[in-house]
Structures are given as C-alpha cells and as structure tokens.
Design a protein that fits this description.
The two termini are 23 Å apart. The chain is mainly beta.
Length: 324
C-alpha cells in the first residue's frame, strides 16, 4: 500500500479522480528496493565438483602427513603454512557426528623456520579435548601475511568450539598456539560446523560464520575475530549445514557480489529448502528470497560463480543462482 503525506492531498485532489487513480497504480508498481535479489534453482547436467583445497601447494606433502587420522584431509596453505593435518587418532570422545568415534588428539603443520627451512610443528590436546573435525581450514584472518588454522575442538563437558590457531615465532623454533576461541556449544556431544570466512558486517575485517548444533536446532552465528576470543554479533535460527553421521562438511556457501555484503546460502533444518541470508545495516538479517524448496534432501553445496552447485540425495545436481 502507498501512503501519501496529508499536505499533498489537496494538490492531488485537484487533478481529478482518474488522474489520482492512475498515480496510485503507478506508485504501487514500483519495486520496494532497487537492490532486491532472489534465488533461482535449475537442473544441472554436470555433477558438482569437489572443492579444491590443494591449489596452492608450496611443498610436496610430507611423509608424516600419511599418518593423519582416517578420512581426514591434509590441506595446503599459501604462505608460511605449507601443509596442515590432524593426527593422534583417539576414541576418548565417542561422538559420531562425522560418522566415527575416532577423532584427532593433535594437529600438525609444515611451516618455515627462522632459517627459512621447512619444519614440522604440532599441538597436542589435553585428555579432555579432541579435534572433532576432518578438514583444517587455512586463512589469513587478520590479513597480516601469516596464516591461521580454523578447527572444531570438542571438550568432554562443554562440547564443541571453533578455535583459531597460529604460529608463535618468539622462540628459536616456531610453535602452534591458540589465538582465539569461540563460545562452546554447551554440553557433551553438542557440535558445530563452520560455514566460512568473509566480511559479513562491512567493517573491512574478516568475520567467521558457523552453525551450532546443526542436527537438533541449528543456529547460524557470525563472530568477530577479537583475540583471544571469537565474539558473536549475529544469530539466525532454522538452519543446518550438516547431516548427522556424514563426512561431508560442505553444506553451505558464501556468495560474493559487487557492492553487496556476502550472502550465506545454506539449507533449513529439514535440508529440503534453501535460505539466502545477508547481514545488513543497521544490524539485521535480510532473507533475499522466500525459502526455496528442493525436490529431495540436499547432501552437498559446492561454490559456483554467483551461487552454488547442489547435490541432492537422489543423485541430481542443481544450479543455485543468486540474482539481482
């Protein structure tokens, strides 16, 4: 409905009823916002390709990485972290979110030493914690040219947290240390799954996104990187980015578009529909389209330009596109 200010009504009345009706019709046809966007879903003939994590190899994979925990990935960095992998398999935290009660008791990295040579360092967790993860994520969060490692760490009492590790070079040899930690999921066997990293609030700094408890009432959470903490600043309900027991952890994408804040595309709790969410000023979520229903359960999302490639449980692939 179009609302007209009272001081203009005498002027409009002088035009006559037909002209006034025509004006109201024209105003009602104007878009609510010039930047309105939508989400389109179309069949895709090709299957979705896996996300490439090895595109920036600076060194061959070290032999020590062959001892990583089962079904995990060694991931290549771009700068001072050549490779990162998870080790020390243990059953001391018997949660099967990723399909197995075996988790990592340590993380290992091939890094440059002070002499410029490559050196392997490790961080071993205490007995009450494990890395309940399969894929280290390498990113330069503070854009200082030195990379950080993002991992899901689970505590026997508090459940999972997102942790940021970095290199400490103040001693003779570099070592892995914790740089920041997010809130815990709350209790034993409560898990979370990262979405990714982007400048979600437009302040020029990279933020982190996760989904807490994606199996039992998922909460999308945005966090500022404020060492020694990851500080939440936004939440959204009714989302999921993981199927209980699945190794696949890529069930959300971040879509970048010119002159727009990043958009997160991810399933709802049923995994039968897609959200497209953007954190807009003055600090609120914008749903860029009505929930987009899918013909079957979504199993995976891989990034594509302006959208994603969705793999469904019936084997079909869909092209998901974010449009102006």
């Amino acid at each position: 409905m179009v609302m007209l200010r009272f001081q203009y009504l005498p002027l409009f009345a002088s035009w006559g009823k037909p002209a006034l009706v025509a004006l109201l019709i024209c105003l009602s046809l104007q878009p609510l916002a010039a930047t309105a966007m939508g989400l389109t879903v179309a069949p895709r003939a090709q299957s979705c390709l896996p996300i490439e994590r090895l595109a920036h190899r600076t060194q061959p994979l070290p032999a020590e990485a062959q001892q990583r925990i089962p079904d995990s990935q060694a991931v290549a960095g771009k700068h001072d972290l050549a490779w990162v992998w998870l080790g020390s398999p243990t059953r001391r935290y018997p949660h099967g979110a990723l399909g197995s009660p075996v988790h990592a008791g340590s993380v290992h990295a091939q890094v440059t030493s002070s002499s410029g040579a490559w050196h392997i360092v490790e961080l071993v967790l205490p007995l009450n914690r494990v890395y309940e993860d399969r894929v280290p994520r390498i990113v330069d969060l503070d854009r200082d040219g030195r990379e950080e490692i993002l991992l899901i760490e689970a505590d026997a009492l508090r459940g999972a947290s997102l942790v940021v590790l970095g290199l400490d070079r103040t001693q003779d040899q570099p070592r892995l240390v914790e740089r920041a930690r997010g809130p815990s999921a709350g209790s034993t066997f409560r898990w979370l799954n990262p979405v990714g990293v982007a400048d979600f609030d437009g302040d020029g700094q990279l933020d982190l996104a996760t989904v807490t408890t994606p199996h039992i009432g998922g909460v999308l959470q945005l966090l500022h990187f404020r060492p020694p903490a990851l500080v939440p600043f936004a939440r959204m309900l009714d989302v999921s980015n993981h199927r209980m027991g699945a190794l696949e952890q890529d069930l959300a994408v971040i879509v970048m578009q010119p002159d727009q804040r990043p958009t997160i595309v991810l399933p709802d709790m049923t995994r039968r529909a897609l959200h497209a969410l953007r954190w807009d000023a003055p600090g609120q979520w914008t749903e860029l389209a009505d929930l987009k229903p899918l013909p079957s359960l979504i199993e995976r999302l891989a990034p594509l330009p302006q959208g994603a490639c969705a793999t469904l449980s019936d084997g079909r692939a869909l092209r998901i596109t974010l449009t102006h």
